[in-house]
Design a protein that fits this description.
The complex is a heterodimer of chains A (470) and B (442). Chain A has 470 residues and is α/β, with parallel strands linked by helices. Chain A has helices at residues 25-34, 47-61, 74-79, 82-96, 107-111, 116-126, 148-163, 182-195, 227-231, 254-258, 264-272, 285-299, 305-325, 336-348, 365-372, 388-398, 410-416, 440-461, and strands at residues 17-18, 39-44, 68-69, 100-105, 135-139, 173-176, 199-201, 238-242, 275-279, 329-333, 352-357, 381-383, 402-405, 420-422. The radius of gyration of chain A is 23 Å and the shape is globular. Classes of the chains: A alpha/beta (470), B alpha/beta (442). The structure holds iron/sulfur cluster (SF4) (2 copies).
Chain lengths: 470, 442
């Protein structure tokens, strides 16, 4: 009864974006700011932006996500959003008693030229009487200059620049995990604790966006990295930063021009000489080894025995499962650093990634894929600025066996009758999206099992016999 | 209530304690985590179900990305509405204008998807950069021969309600453009049903059984060509007064079509919606058919409901939905399954709605306009509610606090209208309120 969208040759060019494979910058910034303890983000712009972003995040995290809006009216649009900004801050302080207020701009407030830094300055000047004034941090996040990932990294960089201080070198490390799942953050924390490493993780929304059940409603959920800890970032022994694209995709313009250094870790390296280990997300054996090696190098300690076991079992399972996936054709999509790491992983287990696609605009996806996928990186079609309809049309022409990425391409998998391994962000059609593990040996183990089982199940479901053994 | 925003005091009242009328229709206070969206959102929800139209969102990527396929509005044929098209403006257009990009986008999309019409939504940024969206739409209409309608829904330009109005304005541009069609006797338009989970089909079936013809559905399972004929119907039945009443009024003025307000939630309101139509057409035969239909439906429904009522008797519910009209029906529907409403609120209710709610509810019931998570959670705690009825944004609040939840907004996938819907509603409420999982959260 339902008609599918028309089938269009994947070579046709559209000016419009059709089912965007990216989101807007304040979403990413809000997630990052949620990872600071006691922080309430305010989106400085129209009410819709905040409400839509909240709804989108809530559908993934299945958590209350309080993000305030400065509720632009026509008046604010004409005369500037200063008054709205001040009222918003005041009301947020009154209601939430936050430790930190984070202001993130929108297309609208940026275009009319609002200067939120100045508004904050005015607010602090005029409200000395409010005791326990929160700390403030801002992110410049008009969406026409980049995607949600640019917003995320912009917020991380801004928090680092705002709070980090210099001083005598310590032994702790900074970890910049990027936009990963709350379970990934928890796993990283366990690993670092087991390693016996003192760390500062920016951001850490492992609890704020994935809280246990509450007895009473908490205006601000528990968890997050305290500002006092972020202050120590400048004296860390080293930083580890996941992702190689990060926010280098942000297009030209005011944001870029203002940027002295792009990411938090980059800033710390330039400003305080904190050595930065930049690497792809630790998905797959090779990527995880690289991360572990960095940890060992920085700390002089050895990988705890438990994780050596995880690594061993992972490789053992590679042997058990390799045949079912060898040569299978996969399409990987989503945000750029995720796509790169995931493609590297699939490459190392013998899956043929035929298309690696993203809505991101760095223009560097292809180069990074070539660099990280020694098996068949040359043959992978890597596409920046793709949208889901382009992925769909390309897939209809090229017949992949499997889709790997967030839940938004489910409709494509359904139309093609192929499996989809859900991972990344967002997962809107299942529970537990926030608990999907991607990172480290154990995250890779979960993904590997899922990929192999997806192929086995596909064969089983489509077989006339229905074998009970593999 | 000290930690609530002070400016909001007069948007909250407790029946039996506060006598003043509730203040509503205000813009949200800056800094609140309002559950409301923007003008664009209002327009988008109303027009979205028109399935053979192209919906192009002119603006940066977010406004479109967040509204991709989010409603459960079904179509019996074309599915163009489920695609999210945006001009995805970049800095270049923000500086130099986006008209050219809009024009090119429209031409290539229309060429490929061959829609019957197109809606171009202007978002905040477009209002600021000053694109002449109307002019581009006119030009494309001229060149392609299909109606391309500008929906000037810049988010900052009012509230979601204003968005409804703008959407109705877009619809009224199409209504009356088919000058050859003659509607059969006994025909009506359904306004304000969006065919969530196939609800419109159910309603159309009821009316059909009574011998009533549907000319145009606005906008559930909507079609451009049906809209063009809508002026030929003899009656408009309007649900969800918030979004479509303006259009009904306009059609009365312009085409002399009377309208009646109805609700399809709950047995009483659903049955009234059928009887009133029969009364309007002054047909005894039709009334007889309506009675038979209701009797048949009820003879199945009531026994089926009894078992749920038994389990739910005395439980308390909090309601927070988009339109107050829906809230009113919900209060009644809850009563039918033995439940009491202790909190009721909406994003867009007007004074009349709130007065009616005040009349209907028991003393102690909290009535609220344009609420936020802080308030809502406080209210459910104060009143000891067992169930929350709301939209996706309220769901995690309910669950976090250990109470049941029923999704009653535009994203739901369960039909809740009509008799079948009433049973679904009871089932869903029961499944949530009576689940054993809450034992771990008290
Ligand atoms: S793209 Fe810009 S205007 Fe649209 S929702 Fe995102 S921030 Fe708001
Ligand atoms: S930019 Fe404006 S139109 Fe778009 S979501 Fe935000 S408030 Fe609404």
């Amino acid at each position: 009864m339902f008609e599918n969208a028309p089938i269009i040759k994947s070579t046709k060019e559209f000016t419009a974006t059709r089912n965007a494979c990216k989101l807007c910058a304040p979403l990413g910034a809000s997630v990052a700011f949620k990872g600071i303890r006691g922080c309430v983000p305010i989106i400085h712009g129209g009410q819709g932006c905040a409400t839509y972003i909240r709804r989108y995040l809530i559908s993934h995290f299945k958590e209350p996500v309080d993000i305030a809006s400065s509720n632009f009216t026509e008046e604010a649009t004409v005369f500037g959003g200063g008054a709205n900004c001040h009222t918003a801050i005041k009301n947020v302080i009154g209601q939430y008693k936050p430790e930190v207020v984070a202001l993130t701009t929108t297309c609208l407030s940026e275009t009319i030229g609002d200067d939120v830094k100045m508004y904050i300055h005015e607010f602090e000047r005029d409200n000395q009487s409010i005791k326990d004034l929160p700390r403030f941090v801002t992110a410049s996040t008009p969406s026409y200059q980049g995607s949600h990932m640019d917003g995320f990294h912009e917020a991380v960089a801004s928090a680092t620049k705002t709070f980090a201080k210099g001083g005598e070198k310590g032994t702790h490390i900074n970890i910049f995990p990027g936009f990963v799942s709350t379970e990934d953050l928890r796993q990283l924390k366990y690993l670092l604790s087991d390693f016996g490493i003192d760390y500062v993780m920016v951001p850490d929304y492992s609890e704020t966006l994935d809280n246990p059940i509450w007895n009473t409603y908490k205006r601000i959920p528990e968890g997050g990295t305290p500002v006092a800890k972020i202050e120590t970032c400048g004296t860390a022994a080293a930083s580890i930063e996941f992702g190689t694209i990060l926010n280098f995709g942000a297009l030209s313009g005011r944001v870029k021009n203002n940027k002295l250094s792009a990411t938090g870790a980059h800033y710390l390296e330039n400003e305080f000489g904190v050595k930065n280990y930049r690497m792809p997300l630790p998905i797959g054996v090779k990527n995880t080894d690289r991360f572990i090696k960095a940890l060992e190098e920085i700390t002089g300690k050895e990988l705890p025995i438990r994780y050596q076991g995880e690594r061993g079992r992972l490789i053992d399972s590679y042997a058990d499962g390799h045949k079912y996936i060898f040569g299978k054709k996969a399409v990987v999509y989503g945000e750029e650093d995720f796509v790169i790491a995931m493609t590297t992983f699939l490459d190392e287990i013998g899956v043929e990634v035929i298309l690696a696609a993203t809505g991101g605009e760095s223009g560097r996806l292809e180069e990074q894929i070539r660099e990280n996928c020694p098996e068949r990186g040359e043959q992978i079609l890597a596409k920046n600025m793709f949208d889901y309809e382009k992925i769909r049309e390309w897939s209809i022409d090229n017949k992949p066996d499997l889709l790997v990425g967030n839940s938004k391409a489910y409709y494509i998998a359904r139309e093609l009758d192929i499996p989809i391994v859900r991972c990344g962000f967002p997962i809107h059609d299942r529970i537990g999206g926030q608990r999907i593990k991607h990172l480290g040996y154990s995250g890779t183990q979960d993904l590997f099992d899922q990929v192999v089982n997806a192929m086995i199940q596909y064969k089983q479901d489509h077989s006339a016999v229905g074998y009970k053994y593999m | 209530m000290d930690a609530f925003i002070n400016d909001r005091q007069n948007q909250i009242l407790t029946k039996g304690t506060d006598d003043a009328a509730i203040a509503c229709g205000k813009a949200s206070v800056a800094g609140s985590v309002s559950q409301r969206a923007c003008v664009f959102c209002g327009s988008r929800v109303v027009l979205y179900p028109i399935a053979d139209a192209l919906h192009l969102i002119h603006g940066p990527v977010g406004c479109a990305a967040y509204t991709w396929d989010i409603r459960g509005s079904l179509s019996s044929g074309p599915q163009i509405h489920r695609l999210s098209f945006t001009t995805d403006l970049k800095e270049k257009e923000v500086v130099f204008g986006g008209e050219e990009r809009l024009y090119k986008a429209l031409i290539s999309l229309i060429e490929t998807y061959k829609p019957k019409g197109a809606f171009v939504y202007a978002t905040c940024i477009v209002g600021v950069i000053g694109d002449d969206v109307e002019a581009v739409c006119k030009r494309v209409t001229r060149e392609t021969g299909i109606d391309v309608i500008a929906v000037m829904s810049e988010g900052f330009n009012g509230t979601k309600k204003d968005g409804y109005k703008i959407a109705c304005g877009a619809l009224s541009k199409l209504i009356g453009t088919d000058t050859t069609f003659k509607a059969p006797e006994y025909s009506l338009n359904i306004l304000g049903d969006f065919n969530l989970a196939g609800e419109l089909w159910m309603l159309a079936e009821y009316y059909k059984k009574m011998g009533v013809n549907l000319v145009a559905a606005m906008t559930g399972d909507g079609r451009i060509d049906d809209l063009r004929k809508a002026h030929t119907a003899q009656l408009n039945v309007v649900q969800c007064s918030g979004s479509m009443i303006g259009l009904a009024k306009e059609m009365k003025e312009k085409y002399g079509i009377p309208f009646m307000k109805v609700s399809y939630f709950g047995i009483e309101d659903m049955s009234d919606a059928l009887y009133e139509v029969a009364k309007f057409f002054k047909s005894d035969e039709m009334m007889e058919k309506a009675r038979t239909l209701v009797k048949e439906e009820l003879s199945e429904l009531l026994p089926a409901l009894a078992q749920y009522r038994q389990k739910l008797e005395g439980k308390k519910a909090a309601i927070y939905v988009g339109g107050a009209f829906k809230a009113i029906s919900l209060v009644k529907a809850l009563r039918l399954i033995g439940m009491k409403t202790v909190v009721v609120g909406s994003q867009t209710g007007n004074v009349d709605d709130y007065n009616l709610l005040k009349e209907m509810c028991d003393d102690g019931t909290i009535i609220v306009d344009d609420s936020n998570p802080n308030e809502l959670s406080e209210f459910v705690k104060q009143t000891g509610a067992d169930l929350f009825i709301g939209g996706v944004k309220e769901r995690p609040i309910a669950y976090k606090l250990g109470l049941g939840f029923c999704d009653h907004n535009h994203e739901r996938k369960e039909a809740l209208a009509g008799y079948e819907g009433m049973l679904n509603f009871a089932k869903e409420v029961h499944a949530s309120v009576c689940s054993p999982v809450w034992q771990f959260m008290k």
